[in-house]
Amino acid sequence: MRSLIIFAACAFVSAQDFNCPDKSGFYADPYQCDLYYRCSKEEPKPSKGCPRQNGYFKHPDPQACDKFYYCAEGVPNELPCPPGLYFDEETSNCDWKDSVARTCDQITKDVLDDGFTCPDGDVMGPNGRALPHPTFPHPEDCQKFYICRNGVQPQKGSCPSGKVYNEDTFMCDEPEKVQGCENYYEGQPTEKNKLPKKA
User: Fold this and answer.
1) Residues 70 and 56 sit within 8 Å (Cβ to Cβ)
2) In the chain, at which residue ranges do the beta strands (DSSP E only) sit?
3) Which fold has domain 109-185?
4) How far apart are CA 176 and CA 190, in angstroms?
5) Would you indicate the residue range of the signal peptide (predicted)?
6) Is the pTM of this model over 0.85?
7) What does CATH list as the number for 44-108?
């Protein structure tokens, strides 16, 4: 009988709600009621391109409205908005030009080290549709070409050995199918015409 009374008393005590007291200036741990945190504001720690350690920020070039920085742990990563959109620093998103409170009279274009920039306007593919990532021939090297990511971000490309860029098909092709590049590999060893080494 005595154990039954002790059990009933324990059950009654555990059934009551127990609240940890609040402490001024501290934040309670949601899982451990006797653990409190003290939070204090720190000054932002900017780094080049990042006003704060983490987040999305406008590009420092006032004319680069279509670009922004994503900062992770203070490391900036420059990213482009999709074509036709500008970065809105109030919402940290890319939005239509009319919805963004920024003045960009002349958008600066990305330029590769050899001077190539993506041309304005859509490029139609062989099927009559606009290409999302159009390609363009290199002016001096049949094997090389340029890619315009989303139509605005230039990048260098190269065909595999033995192939040349065909601007009619927007693909790498056999040299004999591309006017002016038929003899591009003449006298050069390629993967196709290399002889296997004898052991």
Assistant:
1) yes
2) 27-28, 36-37, 55-58, 67-72, 75-80, 85-88, 93-96, 135-137, 144-149, 153-158, 164-166, 171-173
3) Antimicrobial Protein, Tachycitin; Chain A (2.170.140)
4) 15
5) 1-15
6) no
7) 2.170.140.10
